[in-house]
């Protein structure tokens, strides 16, 4: 049985299905400070993965407690479009590409 690490789903963009999975919540690093939420993207049955790096929510930077993740299908769909526009080719071979996006996935 395939087990995902966090929230995820499937979005359809231009007739293709893309799976997304939240890899981790924002984390505090002793050297780098707060690190945002990475989200894995993969088109169905194609080899190349992309990772969207979302920024750390402002509430954590202010010392407030963690809340629920803001990443959902709509935000993931905007992230897929942004990665495709930035040059991600899900059908190509190679290493995983990482894209920095804003809170809305753009």
What would you note in describing this structure?
The N and C termini lie far apart (33 Å). The protein has a five-stranded mixed beta sheet with strand order 1-2-5-6-7, with helices on one face. The chain has a two-stranded antiparallel sheet with strand order 3-4. Helix content is 16%, strand content 32%. The chain has 106 residues and is α+β, with helices and mostly antiparallel strands.
Count of helical stretches: 2
User: What shape does the CA trace take?
Assistant: globular
Helix share bin: 10-25%
Average pLDDT: 81
Q: Cα-atom Rg, whole angstroms?
A: 14 Å
Unreliably modeled segments: none
Alpha-carbon distance between the two ends: 33 Å
H and E order:
EEEEEEHHE
Q: Helices and strands: which structural class? A: alpha+beta
Strand content: 25-35%
The description of the largest β-sheet is: 5 strands, mixed
Explain the layout of strands and helices:
Layout: E1 8-13, E2 16-22, E3 27-29, E4 33-35, E5 38-43, E6 49-53, H1 58-61, H2 73-85, E7 97-100
Parallel strand pairs: 6-7
Antiparallel strand pairs: 1-2, 2-5, 3-4, 5-6
Question: Quick gist of this model?
Answer:
With 106 residues, this protein is of the alpha+beta class. It is 16% helix and 32% strand. It is built from two helices and seven strands; from the N terminus they run ββββββααβ.
């Amino acid at each position: 049985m395939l087990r995902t690490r966090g929230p995820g789903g499937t979005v359809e963009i231009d007739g293709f299905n893309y799976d997304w999975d939240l890899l981790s919540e924002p984390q505090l690093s002793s050297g780098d400070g707060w690190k945002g939420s990475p989200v894995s993207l993969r088109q169905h049955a194609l080899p190349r993965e992309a990772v969207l790096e979302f920024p750390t929510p402002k509430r954590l930077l202010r010392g407030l407690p963690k809340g629920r993740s803001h990443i959902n299908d709509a935000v993931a769909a905007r992230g897929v479009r942004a990665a495709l526009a930035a040059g991600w080719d899900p059908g190509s071979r190679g290493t995983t590409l990482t894209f920095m996006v804003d809170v809305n996935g753009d």
